[in-house]
From TrEMBL:
GO biological process, one term: pheromone-dependent signal transduction involved in conjugation with cellular fusion
Pfam families membership: STE3 (PF02076)
Protein name: Pheromone a factor receptor
Entry keywords, A to Z: G-protein coupled receptor, Membrane, Pheromone response, Receptor, Transducer, Transmembrane, Transmembrane helix
Annotated localization: Membrane
Transmembrane segments: 6-27, 34-58, 78-98, 119-140, 167-190, 211-234, 272-288
Record family assignment: Belongs to the G-protein coupled receptor 4 family.
Keyword set includes Transmembrane: yes
Topological type in the membrane: Multi-pass membrane protein
Length: 334
């Protein structure tokens, strides 16, 4: 297997993107921020796929490739579903920020009905809609999947009109909804910028720092997601389309229609965007106070574990470090 520099770099950066996404994931999971948790978890899953696929299909010799059965069947559905879930999560984040900044309807604390309504909308956008799009993909899946260099498992779509409506239209609609809520949030944020602390104090568990970082993250992702969704839809509209035919899309040999596509381009733009998004999570939430507390707890666990291990070894090797006891080090994160 010819391992050239990109074949080593891609798995390394994908794995690093997964690792640095863990602290932000824990931060939002502990804060019970459902939409942000789904967003970070989904992108992390995609980066796990990027890491594994870049190793499995690193070679440009297609005759040496594994056919990817079962694994790719799962991956191509996750690829499609998580893309929609990420758009839904960003839209949910801006919907929530717009509600928080709505001083005309502000309450001391959200009522149980308001919390259930918010969760229902987030489940609809982040879970139910992606699942429906994943299921609808089978209707227009003319090949089982494609295999490409480094990227590995890649979804296949038939060039019929339902593909536009079932697959490529939903990200555009969800992103446009997120853009509307984003614009509303920006207007309200500017209007209440002087009393921001008092406005946010009415929402339990929300601080100015976390709110602004989440807003900045969502805004950054929306700037990337929305144009890409519109561009993908526009490009697919320009492709000549034919009438839908189940027999044409799913012939008797459909299960063996695995298309091998060797490419000199080691990874497509969308896969690099997934990796970059993992580092964005760390940039916005891996350096904050909440993440620092997590790192501090990990260091404390390491401090307790390392001396115990060394003491255990010292019983078998008394000549090492006196009795095998390491001096306890004090760590502090500021």
């Amino acid at each position: 297997m010819p391992w050239i520099a990109p074949g080593i770099t891609i798995p390394a950066v994908a794995l690093l993107a997964c690792l640095v996404s863990i602290p932000p994931l824990l931060v939002h999971f502990k804060a019970r921020n459902f939409a942000a948790t789904v967003l970070i978890l989904g992108v992390t899953i995609l980066n796990v796929q990027n890491f594994a696929n870049a190793i499995i299909w690193a070679s440009q010799d297609r005759y040496s490739w594994w056919n990817g059965k079962i694994l790719c069947d799962i991956e191509v559905k996750l690829y499609i579903g998580i893309a929609v879930a990420a758009d839904g999560a960003v839209a949910s984040i801006f919907r929530q920020t717009a509600m928080i900044l709505d001083t005309d309807r502000m309450t001391v604390a959200p009522s149980p009905q308001q919390r259930r309504s918010r969760l229902a909308v987030e489940i609809l956008l982040c879970i139910m809609l992606p699942v429906l799009v994943m299921a609808a993909h089978y209707l227009v899946q003319n090949d089982r999947y494609w295999l490409t260099t480094s990227a590995g498992c890649t979804p296949a779509f038939d060039t019929c009109w339902p593909t536009l409506l079932l697959i490529f239209l939903w990200p555009v609609l969800v992103c446009l909804m997120g853009s509307i809520y984003c614009a509303l949030s920006v207007i309200r944020l500017w209007r209440h910028r002087k009393e921001m602390s008092s406005v946010l104090s009415s929402t339990p568990g929300v601080t100015s720092s976390r709110f602004l970082r989440l807003f900045a993250l969502g805004f950054t992702l929306l700037l990337g997601y929305c144009p890409l969704a519109i561009l993908a839809f526009a490009e697919n509209v320009s492709i000549p389309r034919h009438r839908y035919s189940w027999a044409f899309i799913h012939p008797p040999d459909w299960a063996e229609r695995i298309i091998l596509v060797p490419s000199t381009e080691r990874l497509t733009f969308d896969r690099w965007a997934q990796i970059a998004t993992g580092f964005l999570f760390f940039l916005f939430f891996g350096l904050g106070k909440e993440a620092t507390q997590i790192y501090h707890s990990w260091l404390k666990m390491t401090q307790r574990w390392l001396p115990t291990r060394c003491m255990f070894r010292g019983k078998h090797h008394p000549h090492q470090l006196g009795a095998g006891v390491l001096p306890r080090a004090e760590f502090a994160l500021t």
